[in-house]
Design brief:
2 copies of one chain form a homodimer. The first copy, chain A, is an alpha/beta fold. Chain A has 2 domains: 255 residues, Type I PLP-dependent aspartate aminotransferase-like (Major domain) (Aspartate Aminotransferase, domain 2); 125 residues, Aspartate Aminotransferase, domain 1 (Alpha-Beta Complex). Helices cover 42% and strands 14% of the residues of chain A. In chain A, strand 8, helix 7 and strand 9 form a beta-alpha-beta unit. In chain A, helix 1 runs antiparallel to helix 10, helix 11 packs parallel to helix 13 and helix 11 packs antiparallel against helix 14. The N and C termini of chain A lie far apart (53 Å). At the A-B interface, helix 1, helix 2, helix 3, helix 4 and helix 10 of A face helix 1, helix 2, helix 3, helix 4 and helix 10 of B.
């Protein structure tokens, strides 16, 4: 068993995305205790930085010490009680996972099924809400990572409010790459991941909860089924003792040992986002998407999702006829050190997912991706139009600068 | 918001322990995808390395992508079904947390209460097992981090077998610092943490499950209440598709995005442990404990735990009369950059916990700890004997070399 030296990949799958050297260096700094005053001060900055990215004033905004799937679970186990009806919009893999979560909490899922690759039909959801006035929660995925579809989060959160339901929103792939307007939407529980548009290491899940959501947690009739994810306990660590009003002498109750070095990384990624400006970062994702799109269009490749519903950071491309999914991805990885993503569930073997996220959303990555994909497909005699992608990307690059 | 540069602490609390530069550098390496063949090969080495430390042949041995408290929870949510009786030995904070876990799974906890700081009474547990022949599980903490007491794990696991119960063992503080003999004990589910005697970053929880434990999970009547921690699903990622028999072409089912950089760190810490040799590492923890103990004894400080039940890596010291707990720890942190731990629960303000774990278990750390503690206590005119600790430590150091 020898030390592991990873190959140097360019990560353009559905996450993790490339991690900037500043963030990797931050993670390599010496550990300090999770109750050290210096660490607690850093935690407060992480919370403040996350509030800025979530565009919220929610006091309870923090990173869960586990990946995005635990972020999803913390929302459901805290807000769903046995017997609670939960309306779930399902147009991809992660809507399906929400259903699993509701069932495992003893809730009653009411599924609004939409086609994978199509957007959530807000009117259809409104109908279901009208038919289920006793439902407690409306849950949906803002940025479906399995398809690249964006949901109309503002409309769906407004629907939830109108029907006196809480909303649970999956913003794993959107946070930092598309506007996530928690307060403007009136969203109640939102979870994300750090390994997508925040370009940090995987393993943390930023979450934010509205006052209404906290009220629901505090007035539950049953205990939260997970000790690790019980917000009533986590509040003692992330918020300090509520009985202690002296802000400079907050006491923190020990709950679990926080992942110190990963949090150093998240802190640095939030500093970098602050330096760039959230609006600029979001605009950058769109610019890079446009350059990628110009090249893919010129090659004659088709997108799964209609243009108006596409996420800039997650591009689902139909695999051309006669081309073997895995053969292409293996060549890209072996010959170009480039990772793109496979399809999930019913889209396995039918699409590739090209991520343009965080530090991966750079012109050099897009150029590599277009060149490598064209070279590989041309070598396989796939039905594409070769020789035009780079010129099209160059024109889109020009547009991005004059815009 | 500026980049965070942590103070350079010496960590001698109950964890995290100091992280060796090699491990911190490993964590700063560029990320690759969690389904990349190079990453999967590394995962296989991590599993093999963990089997060596757990001294087990258990196929299902892997690091949970979350801290030790999630490691505890993965054992209980998978093995306990509603109505199952679980006998819990409780002689510290973590036995209490086990009870919380059982209750939240709908299980029926039967608590064998022992004094905090005292060992688990095996005969008492045997009596309780005889009175509860229908109990399904016996759970106990091998190394109680809240007190520094070692349990007789071999005897307790044997009891569980004799009474046809599964055993769940907390080895968070013991793994890598004391012998954890999973196969020799016949333990069924064992969880640990990476931030103690493995000296890696917090945020991962190594676990191992026996064939009997897996059989129980596979034949459950109810779904595991946590999606994130469901072993039936995690098997697909960590073990590959059971239907695919070709070992070189294992397919891995996507479950969640693994914490790539933290796993680089764990891999490196296992490489380092392999280089040192597990037996040598365990012996080193005992040597360092003896040096620390010699110094503390010479100062006239008392241990909470009787000598024969002490863990070398977690030393609970009674706070001398008239000395304010927090004042001392604040001085140690501010003036010596040294972290030691506070007491938990009923031992708050009554003990300090001095960790001698992993990379923190070095002579230079022990020397600093003894000097700083003596200097601080002497300055506060605490009732100790000053001026003798270093000479006593030197004699013990000499003994360690001649042994």
């Amino acid at each position: 068993m020898d030390s592991f030296h990873p190959p140097l990949r360019t990560l353009m799958g559905p996450g993790p995305s490339d991690i900037h050297l500043r963030i990797r260096e931050a993670m390599s700094r010496p550990a300090i205790g999770h109750l050290d005053p210096a660490f607690i001060a850093m935690m407060d900055e992480v919370k403040e930085g996350l509030r800025a990215v979530f565009r919220t004033k929610n006091a309870l905004t923090f990173p869960v010490s586990a990946p995005g799937s635990a972020g999803m679970e913390i929302c459901f186990v805290n807000l769903v009680e046995p017997g609670d009806k939960v309306i779930i919009c399902q147009n991809g893999a992660f809507g399906g996972r929400m259903q699993e979560n509701v069932e495992r909490c003893g809730g009653v899922p009411i599924v609004v099924a939409c086609e994978w690759g199509a957007p959530i039909d807000v009117e259809q959801v409104d109908d279901i809400c009208r038919q289920n006035q006793d439902a407690k929660i409306l849950a949906f995925v803002h940025a479906e990572t399995s398809t690249g579809v964006r949901a109309n989060a503002a409309a769906l959160c407004a629907l939830a409010r109108a029907h006196h339901m809480l909303s649970i929103v999956d913003a794993v792939t959107s946070l930092g790459g598309s506007p996530v307007d928690v307060d403007a939407w009136g969203a109640d529980a939102v979870y994300s991941g750090t390994q997508k548009c925040l370009s940090c290491t995987p393993g943390l899940s930023p979450v934010t909860f509205s006052a209404q959501a906290i009220e629901k947690v505090r007035t539950r009739k049953t205990k939260v089924q997970s000790w690790f994810l019980d917000l009533n306990l986590l509040l003692g660590y992330w918020e300090g003792d509520a009985k202690n009003k002296n802000k400079n002498k907050k006491t923190r109750a020990y709950h679990h040992t926080a992942p110190i070095n990963a949090l150093y990384g998240l802190h640095e990624s939030l500093v970098m986002l602050h330096e760039e400006g959230l609006d600029n970062a979001i605009a950058r994702h769109t610019k890079m998407h446009n350059v990628l799109k110009a090249g893919l269009d010129a090659m004659g490749l088709q997108f799964l999702v209609a243009e108006e519903h596409r996420l800039p950071q997650l591009n689902s491309i139909l695999i051309p006829d006669g081309v073997q999914d895995a053969d292409v991805r293996t060549r890209l990885l072996q010959d170009f050190n480039l990772e793109i993503g496979a399809g999930l569930g019913p889209l396995t073997g039918k699409i590739w997912r090209i991520g343009v996220m965080g530090h991966s959303a750079r012109f050099e990555n897009i150029t590599l991706c277009l060149s490598a994909l064209e070279t590989t497909l041309a070598a396989m005699q796939a039905p594409i139009t070769p020789g035009k992608a780079l010129a099209a990307a160059q024109a889109a690059y020009q547009d991005a600068y004059t815009a």
